[in-house]
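Quick one before lunch.
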Amino acid sequence: MPELPEVETIVRDLKKKLPGLTIDRTKIYDGRVVRQGSHTEFSRRLIGQKIKRISRRGKAIILDLTPSKDSWIIQLGMTGQVIGPTAEGAQAATKVTFQLSNKTSLHYNDYRTFGRLQVVKSLDEISYFKTIGPEPLEKNFTISWLASQLQNRKMPIKPLLLTHQFVAGIGNIYASEILFASGIDPRRPALSLKKKEITLLHHVTRKILQEAIRFRGTSMNTYRDTKGEKGSFKNRIRVYDREKEQCLTCSSAVVKEFQAGRSTFYCPRCQK
Ligand SMILES: [Zn+2]
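Model of the zinc ion complex:
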């Protein structure tokens, strides 16, 4: 599932290519990903609009349109891909194609169709934006904020990091990696973390997310950038999806456990 670094990679690519282009036409091959009153309304609110600005909030891509001042939201779900702008045609997994004013197209691909495409007047129309926590790479994600949020929570730290209302954009891969790099056992109640551990957790969260952006994300399965290429952070993964393999620090076997319905990977010796 694409997380903050993967979505940020896509947004940075799109920022270089899309601003100033107008959407000329939409081709909806599979409307299940269009979460609008009707497909006609979705297309009507896009066609003729110019893409003004592209940004990210959590795992959502936001394209601001002019002159309507609407926002076109793309949420990739489990297996969404944004490919283009390209002169190439639709692929097998393409659900919607957007033809642009420079004769290129943007393709939205999705294998499992959990993605969401919609056009809104205000981000408040989407509950995800109303409830989302701070961006871990922004200034308001501070050590003191993190400490104050952890102090009353009995929830184990790993599922808490995955909660988008707590902090934006962190999913299963990066939560596992962040806790490994912090030396914190994912099962620890959030309130049990000491000041020193919280400081380290804060530092490592930013460091790993920034590093993953630099390596253009992690391609475990279907994640691809806008050129259809894989991200290379997978080569830097230390514990995620490495059950029974040797810990890269101490050679103990990496353990896989289920926590709140999600798989968690950790080293029982390095993470206390
Ligand atoms: Zn270890």
